Amino acid sequence: MFSFDFDLEDNIHESTKGVAAAPPAPQSEPVVELPLSHLLDSLPSRISYSPVLIPLSSGKSVTLSRRDLFDARFQLISEGTDDTDAAPGLDFLDAPSDLVPGVYEGGLKTWECSLDLVGYLASLPDSSETRLSGKRILEIGCGTGIPSVFLLSRLFCEQSNVNCHVHLQDYNSSVLELITFPNIILAWYMSPSSAEYRIRRHYRASEDDVEYPPPDPAVAGELSITPVLKNAFTASVAKLGIDLAFFSGSWDSFATRLRSEGTKYDMVLTSETIYRTDSLPALIQLLYQACSAKDVLCLVAAKVLYFGVGGGVSEFTRALQSNALECCGRAETVWERKLGVDREIMRIHWV
Ligand SMILES: C[S@@+](CC[C@H](N)C(=O)[O-])C[C@H]1O[C@@H](n2cnc3c(N)ncnc32)[C@H](O)[C@@H]1O
Known about the structure:
This is protein-histidine N-methyltransferase. Its EC number is 2.1.1.85. The chain has ten helices and 13 strands. The protein is an alpha/beta fold. It has a single domain (about 30-45, about 105-215, about 225-350), classed as Vaccinia Virus protein VP39 (Rossmann fold). Strands 2-9-7-6-10-11-13-12 form an eight-stranded mixed β-sheet, with helices on both faces. A three-stranded antiparallel β-sheet has the order 4-3-8. A two-stranded parallel ribbon has the order 1-5. Helix 8 (about 250-260) packs parallel to helix 9 (about 280-290). It is globular. The relative contact order is 0.16. S-adenosylmethionine (SAM) binds next to strand 5 and helix 3.
């Protein structure tokens, strides 16, 4: 079953028990685009991380690095922003639950279905649809952003310009600053793209106390975030032609912004975002608004039922087919797991 337990010791959210009542949907919040320079400035001088191992159906596995939650908490304490009176938006870091209605929607933890999504994406055969070069990719309600981190870890292995847009959206700017962006920095550091930065360390005598952990995501470690690393990251991203963008705010506002700007994507991903029925119309409108064509790769990974919160696959498919929305879609189950809490990945076809 499903729960909103919140435990700083545990970075992966696993479902155990239900909650008593469905909390209200988060309020409408304006979209704020967080510039890359702001996210780089928000990084602490060191980040600690641990491996996330994702088994694949082929018997192989994918391993990614993810910033430790306790490390994000430590950053806030050392910056003096852990005082919840001074920074009320951050009180979810102390909350006993995974959800603080209207404030925090569980994005600091990696939810199980985001790992399913990585497994599914990794299993897709190479085709014009799955090739990342030249694509515009959006992850909605990204939280720790593990599916995007996986795709970026592939892009960071490329030698030449990939001309790819990877955009990430979450309700909370603090989630994007504290976890999502650090995870992308880690994906870069673990990739061939950071080789020059790592190799040239021998010429940087002034950086004696800098940590250069092995670029192996299977090993936990600490990475020093120096001005040289930030410049090397920015230069790599520019050289590869990767356009990274980060948006905080609610789904209704983001859909309005995409509509007014005419922004579209070729691959739209989301996981563990259909848990609340009253949020479904805004999410579906956003999925629809974001897709550049009726049959682009639009994937929704979710538990079949979110006990106590009301949402789940049937509520989602019903809302998707409802005439109440300006868009109408059909959900095709492309992956499922019937062990413990049933989980699915749906591909959306707009009609
Ligand atoms: C349960 S978490 C899942 C996070 C991540 N996708 C994963 O699977 O690990 C739900 C995410 O959706 C975002 N979210 C939920 N409702 C939202 C809304 N109405 N507008 C914007 N974001 C929302 C939250 O900020 C949160 O990160």
